[in-house]
What does this fold into?
Amino acid sequence: MVFTITRRVHIIGCGMPKSGTTSVAAMLAPVLRARHEFEMDPAAQVRLREREGEMTRADVEAWLVGRDERCNAEVDSTSFLWTWADILPGLFPDARFVATVRDPRDWCRSLAGMLLAMGDVADAHLAWGRATTSGDTGSRPLEEPQTFLSAAMDYWRQSAGAIAGLPPHRTWWCRTSDLSQRADGLAHWAGVHPDWLRRTPANRGVTPLDDVRAVLADEWVAAVVTADDDIAWQALGALADRE
It folds into this structure.
């Protein structure tokens, strides 16, 4: 007898890194097959090869389709998928999207806190830094804080622009800070009963904010966030305010 798997739901979470993609997967995991950061290491290599011209757009699309089949998830909540937000809607016409977004100032500190807590930064994170920014967000993130902040904001701008282009009728945007209180909205978007959701996002920072502030001074963070960044953040906030 041959068994086939039928998806009841196909949700792709491609929010900003450090914005709640882990929490989206954890919140929906009690009722749906959820994955987070599936095949992150291979994806980083695909992105690097794409940037260097070693993979065509057709090659990348084929890899993304194969990855989706291997993932076999109803909820694929994965931060690096923002990289291909322009082609995902066409590749997966049945999919709906969850895009979590975060204020750039909080985002920079959250990323620094994660890297500070890691100690030895994972190879996949280093690869993503090389593939998506003009600087280095990973190897020594807090030894040269101004260099780190410049690269981090480059990363934020790219992800903000990519996520903003997702199709409005197929995307549920949410600010990181609102994720818990908007659990019912997430449940409605996923087509599940809200009582089944895990109400408190599971991903909690492990690095005290004071430790990060000691390295990333307020004036340095403020200096790298431009007026255009604030406009982009306001536009994302407007998308997140839609119900």
